[in-house]
Structures are given as C-alpha cells and as structure tokens.
Specification:
mainly alpha; 2 helices
Length: 107
C-alpha cells in the first residue's frame, strides 16, 4: 500500500492562526456574557427563587464549559503551528543529511 502524508506548511500555519484568533474571539464573547451577570439581577421578590437559582447554576456550568472550549481552540491552534514547524525542521534536516551523504568531495 502506497500512501503519503503531505503537509502544506503555509496552510497549516494560516489555519492555526485562524483557530487561535477564533479562540480569542470566543473568549471575548464569554467575558461579555459574564459581565452581564446572572439571573440574580432580575429583581425577584422571592416567588421565582427556585427558577433563578437553577438558571444561575446552569449559566455558571455552561460558561465554565465554554471557557474550556475556548482554551482548547487556542491550544489546538498553537499545537498545529508547532507541529508544522517541527515537520518543516525535520524536512530541512533530512535534506541536509542526504546532501551530506551524497557529497563525494572527500573521495
């Protein structure tokens, strides 16, 4: 079975930059949601207390999960850029090593 892995380094670096940017935008949106506050600011007179409490807990859990997703987006973008850089470095080293093997000036 013949298979190849081809990486287009420019595309990977562009994709990683976009992913990091998306993670930053996502984090900014979450900060705006946090600044709004929770349901406790509704001015409830006590009748809706169970609903307000449940809503506040759900909001806090969702924001924690979304924050984790934002962090993952940024770290995945960083990992893409790092893997592209490492593969590029290995390719350059391999080309250099092959060049050294074919050098016959020492003969």
């Amino acid at each position: 079975m013949d298979s190849e892995l081809r990486l287009v380094h420019g595309s990977l670096e562009t994709a990683s930059a976009h992913l990091r940017g998306d993670g930053t935008d996502y984090a900014a949106a979450l900060r705006r949601l946090r600044q709004r506050g929770d349901a406790a600011s509704w001015g409830d007179d006590g009748l809706l207390r169970p609903l307000v409490t449940a809503y506040s807990e759900c909001t806090a859990i969702a924001l924690a999960a979304y924050t984790h997703m934002s962090d993952l987006m940024g770290s995945t973008g960083d990992a893409l850029a790092l893997s592209s850089r490492r593969v590029s470095d290995v390719n350059e080293a391999t080309v250099q090593d092959i060049g050294d093997l074919t050098d016959t000036s020492w003969v």
